[in-house]
Amino acid sequence: MVTVIEALRGADDGDRLGVLLVGYGDRKYGQQMEELVQGIGRYLKVQTPMDNVGFAFCGELVDYSGEPVAKALIFLPTAISMVGAGVIWYFVYSPKEYGLLNSMYQLLPGEQKTQFFLQENTFFGIENNFIPGINTFFIMIVVIWIQAGFSTVVISAALKGVPDDLVEAARIDGATDRQAFYKVVLPYIKGTIITVATTTTIAVLKIFDIIQTMGKGGSFGTSTIANEMYEQGFPQDNEGLGAAWAVLLFLLVVPIVFVNARNQKAMREAR
Question: Could you give the CA distance from residue 236 to residue 232 in angstroms, rounded to a whole number?
Answer without folding.
Answer: 5
